[in-house]
Amino acid sequence: MTAADDDTRPAPTAATAATAARATTADRDGRGRQDIVDVAVVGAGPTGLLLAGDLAAAGLSVTLIERRPRTAANLTRAFAVHARTLELLDARGLADELVTTGRRLDRLRPFGSTALTLQRLRSRYPFVLITPQYETEKLLERRALSTGVHIQYDCQVTGLLQDQDTVTLDVHPATPDATEATRPTRRIHARHVVGADGVRSTVRQTLGLPFPGQAVVRSMVLADVRLTDPPEDLLAVNGSADAFGFLVPFGDGWYRAIGWRRDGRAADTDPVALDELRAILRDALGTDHGMHDARWMSRFHSDERQVPHYRAGRVFLAGDAAHVHSPAGGLGMNTGIQDAANLSWKLAAVLHGRTPDPEALLDSYHRERHPVGRTVLRVSGALVRAVMADGPARRAARGLGASLLARVGPAQDRALGIVSGIGIAYPPPPGTHRPSPAGRRAPDLALAGGERLYEALRTGGFVLVTPPGAAAPPGAPLAHRHWATDTRTACVLVRPDGHIAWSAPRATDSELASAVYGWLLPAPARVPGAPPQKA
């Protein structure tokens, strides 16, 4: 029996079961009727897990398809969890637990220059959390399962076909045995599909979408090692005229080491020896810190690529399936998680019939996130090119630029805002009167009763914040909160992803209703005896 056929997963929630039961259709090969899931997500990395968990928490039926067997761990490439990602995890009640798994980095020291302090970030999390990717995945997987996501491990998508109403996925065992090889192709029907299946995305390739770009760094060496003489700083990173080195702890005595030499020409498949990595780190860091006992070693190359369109009909791309770049800045996993947070509430609103313009809302995923992906490519590209700077003049210019950045407050704030994600803003909706904060990240506002905004966002829906006495529009599926102080007159409507949808210095009840109903249709009247729907 394959993991895809295993029925030991947690029972779906009542809302998930009801949603699945409402939607059946004839199987395309004529063998009877088969349930349609609301969303099929391909890829159970951090992006896919957060997205699937959000959708299931919203009462939708979700199938998550993963190539790895249930017991196989994903390769930990990411270690940095930035402030904006922690805020999004806070809105799901997960951030504080994740923080206990790692160590806080509150200063960045690019190229050995004066440190940039992350305490300048206006966030509940003014630091970079250094923790292995598998810790993030463990939390997100637990949440996904608890909300009713059906995870099909050891499965791969081999075909995709979509029509006006449905997407059909052909699914095979990823590691077939003799019995499994004789089975016919399994099919999964879904109203929407999200490809979060990485840089070699089968979903993207099956759609025939291009992935333009280029390799920027070749023949980087990775290894998990022990150190006799660990570095004093949490991160050890530096570049010399000929090499670049990086060391980060797993937290259990093991370190991830990355090394690159300017004249390296080895292919990804060429063998790598520990002595080679030691020599690279001695050139870059001045010492190999007594590296020994490598449990795993490999080579890889780093690309800069971005798909031109994040949406193709009923199919969406997120995370590395949509954009990939160098590991400089630790932006990859964070950008993917932020993609998922942007897309999940939009799919939920459309599938629940709660948005006035479903197509425009789904199109806004590409419109908002594609420019962010492009910016991340540019930032990580600039960082890696700075690391690769050759010649005394270029390296001197690199050091001077980093030193000036540390001394100029506004420039430092902008740089930290981009890297941390705190500074990411989306274009305001059409017709918004400027200047307006619409589209910007909402800070963690203080609310009445000692509640914070990001605690209120744990409902998974919009949050309307008003002065006491203002009435929430009738039937609006949102959480209504008041300011912590009675002196504030402003009204703010915050999207489920923590960005501002609308605000006004003050507003009448009719103005509030107009603003809210521009985003949300009133919840349908409840049928007697039916279970209450989630807001």
Number of helices: 14
Instruction: Count every beta strand, where a strand is a DSSP E run of 2 or more residues.
Output: 24
Largest sheet: 9 strands, mixed
Beta-strand portion reads: 15-25%
- The mean pLDDT is 85
- Share of helix among residues? 25-40%
List low-pLDDT spans. Answer: 1-33
The coarse silhouette is: globular
Estimated radius of gyration = 24 Å
Oligomer: single chain
Question: Would you give an account of this structure?
Answer:
Strands 1, 2, 3, 9, 10, 11, 12, 18 and 19 form a nine-stranded mixed beta sheet that branches. This protein is 30% helix and 25% strand. Strand 1 (24-26) and strand 2 (33-42) form a beta hairpin. The protein has 535 residues and is α+β, with helices and mostly antiparallel strands. It has helices at 14-22, 46-57, 83-90, 95-99, 133-146, 178-181, 202-207, 274-285, 332-351, 358-387, 392-407, 409-420, 453-456, 509-517; strands at 24-26, 33-42, 62-65, 80-81, 103-105, 107-108, 116-117, 128-130, 150-152, 155-162, 167-173, 186-195, 213-227, 236-239, 243-249, 255-261, 291-306, 311-312, 315-317, 323-324, 462-466, 478-482, 491-494, 500-504. It has 14 helices and 24 strands. The relative contact order is 0.12.
